[in-house]
Please model this.
Amino acid sequence: MQMDESIDIQKLSEEIKEDSAFVEQLRMEVSKVLIGQHKMFDRLLMALLANGHILLEGLPGLAKTLAIKTLAESISADFSRIQFTPDLLPSDVIGTQIYNLQKNAFTTMKGPIFANFVLADEINRAPAKVQSALLEAMQEKQVTIGDTSFKLPDPFLVLATQNPIDQEGTYPLPEAQTDRFMLKVVINYPHMEDERIVLRQQLKGENISVKPVVSLDQIKTARGSLHKIYVDEKIEKYILDIVSATRKPENYRLPSFAPLISFGASPRGSINLALAARVNAFIKGRAFVIPEDVREVALDVLRHRIGLTYEAEAEEITSEAILKEIINQVEVP
Model:
């Protein structure tokens, strides 16, 4: 990859290493409680730095709640958890107005959405009205209670979870909402050695806690540093080729995928793929994006942005399998 001669890459690298120094400190603090699951931590941090949101899919007991709670504690941020159920109302999430008899006026009671880190547990159990209220918060970074709009805290990260096996009494998320999530991460079982450490901690009755090691101001500064990271034109074309291949696979020597894909990734997919690749470079202390950054995050950015046809579902072909083939087929710069 050729660098723009006008960019002092050595000076830029030193700045990025300095700005990203807190990442390792944060990782070490979180790892006291969150054993293993390094990818989940990196993706949480990625969504936070890119000002996005993340959808986690995994079986119960895989530390999804623990991960975001621990991250919030290590950054000294406000954390709230909302358990989504079929009888949940929008006011239970964003808040409502209550009539005050003494003041003879309505008083606004803010809901749990007013926090830096919001865990939307089992989001697919909530009805459409609740999901739309959350959608406004995610997209606009504000909520409307009565006739007044309120800005949400900055930073604001929604981590939503859903159970892939228990679908009774659920409301599938519409494509318009899943597209708002920057990342969809599939959580798997931990390695046996990691699980052994967790088991021993529990048997000993250890109560391990974390302390704040990063301030919200540092997070905001890091967000500004992302714009310094160099993205070459060849990398931009590589990103656009991957996204374009999800729409017209026949143009990338994948004609067999055309009847399997009902719709490809939206332009939001291209933007988020570029942002995620940039953050990946930042987390690694690098001042420029390389193709491996794009490949590393492509599945998590795009797996929920591809629609499958009935033919693909009948053949049990997943969007992940299609994306892996696309990533292998698209020419790497």
